[in-house]
Design brief:
Layout lengths: L1 H6 L4 E6 L7 H7 L7 E4 L5 H4 L9 H13 L2 E8 L6 H4 L5 H18 L6 E6 L15 H6 L2 H13 L4 E6 L7 H15 L6 E4 L2 E2 L7 H12 L4 E9 L1 E2 L4 H19 L4 E6 L21 E2 L12 H12 L1
Parallel strand pairs: 1-2, 1-10, 2-3, 3-4, 4-5, 5-6, 6-8, 7-8, 8-10
Antiparallel strand pairs: 9-11
The chain binds ligand G3I.
The site of ligand G3I has 9 residues, from loops.
């Protein structure tokens, strides 16, 4: 799929991955195939709790393995993420912070992590999911960053990421902004806020975790992309997957294909959409499904391009022919 996407002028078709998945040889052979995947993004191992588990403790071992693999295979890296409200270490969440020392801690984290991977990340998700979950509420999420530092934490994070790696593309990554509504508009305001602060922001990430019944259609996705590229940004589909209600049926798999293809087409039709990343490609290891049913979307699954038995889904062949025949 990467080969086809690149022939059509995109920078990459990529996938999320994690080091524990490298143990499966079939998985690894797909992952290492640059004609299939031209970019990798770690699902967890670049997050704060992993990288800086203690105030003065840094651990890049897991993420380094993914970056080394990408380098070896000639794949781009999407680096994910620097400042988020989830997967934070206990010392940070339970600390007593004032505005000044929390800002210093955040800057320190951003600068050290970006510096460690300087020159190796095509893009950084500098801030992640800064808006409230509810798509009908377009306001900033109340979390430790907003509550203690204030909305300026966002521009400060971008400013220091830019300082630490002048060549990495700096992204704001968000979900439920792929369709029109208050959250989509709120994300545009966030971009303008960063730009008004005179700070560099290069890109917007459309996560695109969809279900057939709620996914926006092709035109709506394209319109939403245009809203952001009109602000001067490049764009990427960053976490594409389409979960379905189990057990599956031929109809559902066909609807799933439509959603995958619409999303790929929206990116293909948007010049400044540089690439697409699926949030893993094998049902067996997906963050949605039996493995994590106690945690996420009980009853949903089969969100990825390959069934657990490695058969390609209609979604896979649909994307393939969309990339070939348009
Ligand atoms: O590492 C612990 C393990 O020690 C423990 O035994 C186990 C029991 O629950 O949990 C393990 O941690 C899990 C972690 O993934 C590592 O596997 C967490 O519970 C689990 O919540 C965490 O889920 C990750 C999720 O982010 C957290 O919100 C998913 O793997 C990851 O795919 C997902 O990725 C996010 C993006 O970063 C941002 N956008 C949404 C996307 C999907 O939620």
């Amino acid at each position: 799929l990467n080969d086809l996407a690149q022939r059509r002028g995109k920078l990459y078709f990529g996938t999320e991955t994690e080091t524990w998945e490298f143990n499966d040889t079939t998985y690894l052979s797909h992952l290492n195939n640059v004609r299939e995947f031209g970019a990798l993004v770690p699902g967890n191992s670049m997050k704060w709790e992993v990288i800086q588990p203690g105030r003065y403790e840094w651990n890049f071992t897991l993420a380094d393995q993914i970056v080394d693999l990408a380098e070896h295979n000639g794949q781009h890296m999407r680096c994910h993420n620097l400042v988020w409200h989830e997967q934070l270490p206990g010392w940070l969440v339970n600390g007593t912070w004032g505005k000044e020392n929390l800002t210093a801690v955040m800057i320190d984290h951003v600068v050290r992590e970006v510096t460690h991977y300087k020159g190796k990340c095509y893009a950084w998700d500098v801030v992640n999911e800064v808006l409230n979950d509810d798509p009908n509420n377009g306001t900033l999420r109340s979390d430790m960053w907003l509550d203690i530092i204030g909305p300026e934490y966002i521009a400060i994070a971008f400013e220091h990421a830019a300082r630490a790696d002048p060549h990495a593309k700096l992204y704001y990554n968000e979900y439920d902004i792929e369709f029109k509504g208050p959250k989509h508009d709120g994300a545009m305001k966030v971009v303008k806020m960063i730009q008004d602060a005179g700070v560099r922001i290069d890109g917007i990430g459309f996560e695109s975790h969809f279900t057939p019944s709620t996914a926006p259609g092709l035109q709506e996705q394209m319109d939403c992309m245009k809203d952001f590229t009109d602000l001067g940004l490049e764009l990427a589909v960053t976490e594409l997957d389409v979960r379905i209600l189990l057990p599956d049926s031929p109809e559902e798999l066909e609807q799933q294909e439509t959603v995958y293809v619409d999303t790929v087409e929206a990116c293909m039709n948007t010049e400044k959409c540089v690439g697409m990343t699926v949030w893993d490609f094998w049902d067996q290891n997906s963050w949605i499904g039996p493995l994590t049913w106690d945690l996420y979307y009980n009853g949903y699954g089969e969100a990825d391009l390959y069934f657990a038995n490695w058969t390609r889904k209609p979604a896979y062949t649909g994307i393939e022919s969309a990339l070939k025949h348009r």
